[in-house]
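Sample pair:
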Amino acid sequence: MKMQAVITGGKVHDVGYRVFLLQRGLGLGFQKFSARNRVQGGAEQVVVQYEGDSGQVDALNSIIREEHPPDANVSDIVFEQYEGYVISTIDYMHMIQIEQLAKGIPAILSIDKKQDKMLEKMDCMLEKQDNMLEKQDNMLEKMDQMEGSITNEIRDLRTDMCSHFDRRLSTMEADIQQIKAKIGLI
């Protein structure tokens, strides 16, 4: 028994519908199966052709009526007897694999180009980060030099203050001795 189902909807292309149907057909044991996308009157359609015994056909008809890929938007399904040639499921699988590879290769190449651009940007960022680290190292070196200079200034100031206070203390002690001598405490 040969059948054709025409699935029409707002979104039946690019949602994995043909692979979805192929998987169901394989599960039912179809030896002859194919599906193709087309646009008819501005509407997206998936046209499915399959050949098998009446039990297989009825089961697939039921699946087509009741199931669809999650992102699909189906508005109509028409079933009709089919008189044309239906290719083998194996040949159809090869065709769909080639088609999926043809879709996938440009996507992979696009990802590869974007990755190259990202790597270039990362290299630029790393270069800027290296420059910032170099500036930070220079700044830390200058801070170390300033710390040494400030420490030396504090040490010199301390030495100056100590010698100044020592002189003042010596002068005060001498003055106290003179006052004591004048008032007779010594």
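The chain has a mean pLDDT of 93.
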